[in-house]
């Protein structure tokens, strides 16, 4: 068992589902976000408020840590000036602090939006070229390249989880892109407990019949999703209008993010249910 595991973005929706299982993987889970507090803590969990753009705060946060699960960021498209601090400088601060503090591995919440402008009919694998759909996606590309460089130059391992749609299934697109919360937990756990990972990229998606991405190059991580969005297909397709082949939101992997103007919210075009886990 690890002595200390750090989770950034612990106050977010995905972080709320990760806190309890991660608290069981280390003697101490240090959860962090920019909120004043995140409510009731699990046994072995401690909360530290820290701004990702504050290098000194992140270096202090990672002191003595074995690994860091980095989910903290602005989770939507926004003007570049807003993305720059938490998503780009914040990623650098995490990797540099991890290197200086002797952290073994960074597990990073990347995104399909790093490759979101690829055509949806292309069955893309983890080696496909970056093709970001937004400033948000561009920041994910930066962090993936950062992780590769720190592995090549400094031997710091990282796993980059290109999450597709970790939310309730409310659209036809999500029949392929859904990542259940149970599969999210398995994905992060495998990224932590796989003995060696080097630099790895894996798509965060459940075992959907209509999954549009190929994880065969990431099989070494041992992630074997169990859930399938096909259980929702009948109701979703009955309510969905016919597809529009001129709509980038329907024709590109990035969905709504591929269609919005740079700096404009992608989530505002989606129906994301806020089902954040309550302790």
From TrEMBL:
InterPro entries: Epimerase_deHydtase, NAD(P)-bd_dom_sf. Keywords: NAD, Oxidoreductase. The keyword Glycoprotein does not apply. It holds the Pfam family Epimerase. Residues 6-163 form the NAD-dependent epimerase/dehydratase domain. GO terms for molecular function: oxidoreductase activity. Belongs to the NAD(P)-dependent epimerase/dehydratase family. This is Uronate dehydrogenase.
């Amino acid at each position: 068992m690890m002595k200390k595991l750090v989770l950034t973005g612990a106050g977010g929706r995905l972080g709320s589902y990760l806190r309890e299982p991660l608290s069981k993987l280390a003697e101490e889970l240090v959860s962090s976000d920019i909120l004043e507090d995140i409510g009731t803590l699990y046994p072995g969990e401690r909360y530290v408020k820290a701004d990702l753009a504050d290098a000194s705060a992140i270096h202090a946060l990672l002191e003595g840590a074995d690994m860091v699960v980095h989910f903290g960021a602005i989770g939507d498209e926004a003007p570049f000036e807003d993305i720059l601090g938490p998503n780009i400088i914040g990623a650098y601060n995490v990797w540099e602090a991890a290197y200086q503090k002797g952290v073994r591995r960074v597990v990073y919440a990347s995104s399909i939006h790093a490759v979101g402008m690829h055509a949806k009919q292309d069955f893309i694998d983890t080696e496909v070229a970056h093709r970001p759909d937004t400033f948000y996606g561009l920041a994910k590309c930066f962090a993936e390249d950062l992780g590769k460089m720190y592995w090549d130059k400094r031997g710091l391992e990282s796993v980059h989880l290109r999450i597709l749609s970790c939310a309730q299934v409310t659209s036809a697109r999500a029949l392929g892109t859904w990542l259940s919360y149970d599969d999210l937990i398995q994905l992060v756990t495998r990224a932590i407990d796989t003995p060696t990972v080097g630099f790895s990229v894996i798509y965060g998606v459940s075992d959907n019949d209509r999954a549009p991405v190929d994880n065969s190059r990431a099989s070494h991580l041992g992630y074997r999703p169990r859930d399938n969005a096909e259980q929702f297909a009948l109701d979703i397709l009955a309510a969905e209008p016919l597809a529009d082949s001129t709509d980038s939101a329907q024709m590109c992997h990035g969905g709504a993010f591929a269609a919005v103007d740079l700096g404009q919210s992608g989530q505002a075009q989606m129906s994301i249910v806020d089902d954040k886990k309550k302790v």
